[in-house]
Design brief:
The protein is about 35% helix and about 20% strand. It is α/β, with parallel strands linked by helices. It has a seven-stranded parallel beta sheet, sandwiched between helices. The longest helix has 16 residues, at about 25-40.
């Protein structure tokens, strides 16, 4: 694993990509999340997530397997709530309100599958101007006359990470 001072990119300069999705998910979704995490790590990114199970745990597992750095923004008041693949647990005691921290810490977010919590993170990201990449996730259709939200829809983990990185780099 690369660390600051070894000639690699400083941690603060690494892309911060949020991976958001449900705390429980079927194996196929878990496999997608694991691959997304692995690709984020291979690109030198830092994985930001909610620190729990499901998509968050699978993505963190993939990132750790590839030597990456993982940050979990936890809803509760104890670092012990983080899954075993989280390097840096951020304890908030904020419950679902911590979703805004996930979004603002991330330079782009990849949403995978998802329930209402994921939908709230999509809405927060759109409101805050954080780019959203959707992989097998919500299809948001505005009311008649409303502008369609700018969500990048992809079909593979490779496309998801490439799109997230392109958004961060301004491409």
């Amino acid at each position: 694993m690369l660390s600051p001072g070894d000639g690699s990119m400083d941690w603060k300069d690494r892309p911060r990509i949020g991976v958001m999705g449900p705390s429980e998910c079927p194996p196929g979704v878990s496999n997608l999340a694991r691959e997304v995490g692995r690709l984020i790590a291979r690109a030198g990114g830092i994985l930001i997530c909610g620190g729990g199970g499901g998509v968050m745990e699978a993505a963190a597992c993939g990132a750790k397997d590839a030597g990456g750095i993982t940050v979990g923004i936890l809803p509760g008041s104890s670092a012990s709530e983080a899954n075993s693949h989280i390097d840096i647990p951020i304890v908030t005691g904020m419950g679902n309100a911590r979703n805004v921290i996930n979004v603002l810490t991330s330079q782009s977010v990849i949403v995978i599958h998802g329930g209402c919590g994921t939908l709230s993170e999509i809405a927060l990201a759109l409101k805050c101007g954080t780019p959203v990449v959707a992989l097998e996730s919500w299809n948001i259709i505005p009311p008649e006359g409303g502008a369609r939200p700018e969500i990048i829809v992809v079909t593979t983990p490779k496309e998801a990470v490439a799109a997230a990185l392109a958004c961060i780099r301004g491409n």
